[in-house]
């Protein structure tokens, strides 16, 4: 199908990320990450999917279920391979500014990285008698100016200090709550709209600035993986904290007054900046009353640093990339563990690729042990340097691993000695245009940028970024479906008469529908208004258009042309089979203009109707105006308006009596990216023996882009009285004659004595009248 549509792929560069000769280099890149401390193992709370028998990254969990299959996901601690993407957080964030990407995609990555500046503050834990214990809870806040308003602390259910904090009376309640929280995904826990839940730990901490004892609560809206896993809650100035405090009757203290005093009495949390109040304690030597929020924040951080109660801190939402999967189908991780001490040993680069063993049963074990653990003979190995017995890693890499760097392999697909040859990488990099959906924003695109930056740092690639320009293409929706409602008696009723729950729906064929204003109605009953909807093509809806059928009826070029003519590449478009007939007619008209009308038997004469004479100025202007427009629209991926420009040119060309070769050949080259098959046939008919694919694309000559006429201002005795349309090369006499015949200007000139004329070609005509010898005129 791809070949029939004329897609110009270099099939010699075809690669498969699942072949050993490819993933050998994926494993090699992993070893480079391991050498630099960017790959490591850690005991972390993970998203475990029992149905899939594997761990999933946060990005692969949507609304508490797996992205693929929709299976329930729970949280549990496991030892996993991680990639330290956080080490590149600042680079990933800062370098976004230089990319020609959709702003929405860049903003999604900025939010995912989530850089914030604030402070870490220590809150001493109090014993049951109110004395400070040796342990402190460290919190991270972006608003240290509000610390006097912190009336409670919240720790995540997985906080490492939780078990030591909980009182005997509260232990059972806390354990039940933490077990419930472990069954939720991070997204579920942090959903802003969900009802806030929590449980009191039975323990208190000391607010380091106010000296007050404040309760420590456990709540799942705080994540152990973000910041320190604990927050100071300031209900007067945070909506989430206010909802929680209101539910559990926790004090609320205002410490920031907005410039608009009405906001402080609204009953809602005020999260903005303002003037700090109620924030002074001479005992600890801190007074920030009357300061702006920014000034107060700086002073609190300075105080915390001096008194060892905290420090300035930059934080990120971005977490290290969980890189292991408990499934068979993935690249084996090239390490093994010595039996005697568990030491991790990387595989020698000369032993790559490490291939998967053959397995009869590669289904999940259900225990957390990966399927590869079933291949005992493969798992058992020896250290080639010491001969010590060892066990291979049985987790595999995620599906993103191979796609992180495939674009580099396209540059040098057969290289068996290195990832990519330096000369080829420098020639091809970076990728000029990447076309892909927005769903890749914080997965593939972010991971690829991370790996590319690591490869840049070790000298494998010459650019900091892999993709210069990213375009999010729109999707093609199925044809419009017209839906009518019927009441219980089977009578058609207008769509705004009720809801689909109360009435039966029926699809109405397009031929029975007509447009009425902004709505669609039934032809035989215009009072019945219909619902018009387009859906994403899917087999279940029965609205899939088979491209093979379209090619069979209209040809591949018509399909290509119509898909581009439907609208800009970035927009979603609705398919309409009848719409393809318009571009099919355009191609037919193009063929007949150049080749001529068909003979009586339906065939065409050999050759073309073009002439070898020089083109006229008008023809050159029409051609180069079309070249300029098509070139501009191709570069902006507005292919639809490029096609419109060619249609306009064709309409003009049909008015010419002769069609010079110079003009027609350039037009065929313009058409070739859109309709390559017909353009190629026309090119050979024009007398060429080699493919037009090797011809340079036409370039617009600025000399022919200027308009042939200009607007010339006309003055009478130095005062502008009107304008006339003249040729650029118009003479003074011709300009004066045109002005004399102009309806508006003639009344100033007829019957008057002309003293002199001042003419600046292309600029102005000034007529000086002899006011002393004015001829008699009829009043």
From TrEMBL:
Top enzyme class of this protein? ligase
Residues annotated as domain Methionyl/Valyl/Leucyl/Isoleucyl-tRNA synthetase anticodon-binding: 620-727
Q: Which UniProt keywords apply?
A: Aminoacyl-tRNA synthetase, ATP-binding, Cytoplasm, Ligase, Nucleotide-binding, Protein biosynthesis
Give GO terms: molecular function aspect only.
Answer: aminoacyl-tRNA deacylase activity; ATP binding; leucine-tRNA ligase activity
Alphabetical list of NCBIfam families matching this protein: leuS_bact (TIGR00396)
What GO terms in the biological process aspect are recorded for it? leucyl-tRNA aminoacylation
Q: Which family does it belong to?
A: Belongs to the class-I aminoacyl-tRNA synthetase family.
Q: CDD domains this protein is in?
A: Anticodon_Ia_Leu_BEm
Taxonomy of the source species: Eukaryota, Viridiplantae, Streptophyta, Embryophyta, Tracheophyta
Query: Record's superkingdom?
Result: Eukaryota
Among the Pfam families in the record, one is tRNA-synt_1
The reaction(s) annotated as catalysed by this protein in its Swiss-Prot or TrEMBL entry are: tRNA(Leu) + L-leucine + ATP = L-leucyl-tRNA(Leu) + AMP + diphosphate
The protein here is known as leucine--tRNA ligase
Q: Which InterPro entries match?
A: aa-tRNA-synth_Ia, Leu-tRNA-ligase, Leu_tRNA-synth_edit, M/V/L/I-tRNA-synth_anticd-bd, Rossmann-like_a/b/a_fold, tRNAsynth_Ia_anticodon-bd, Val/Leu/Ile-tRNA-synth_edit
Instruction: Show where the Aminoacyl-tRNA synthetase class Ia domain sits.
Output: 317-478, 535-564
Enzyme Commission designation: 6.1.1.4
Cellular component (GO) terms are: mitochondrion
- Specify the Leucyl-tRNA synthetase editing domain's residue ranges: 110-304
UniProt source species: Prunus persica
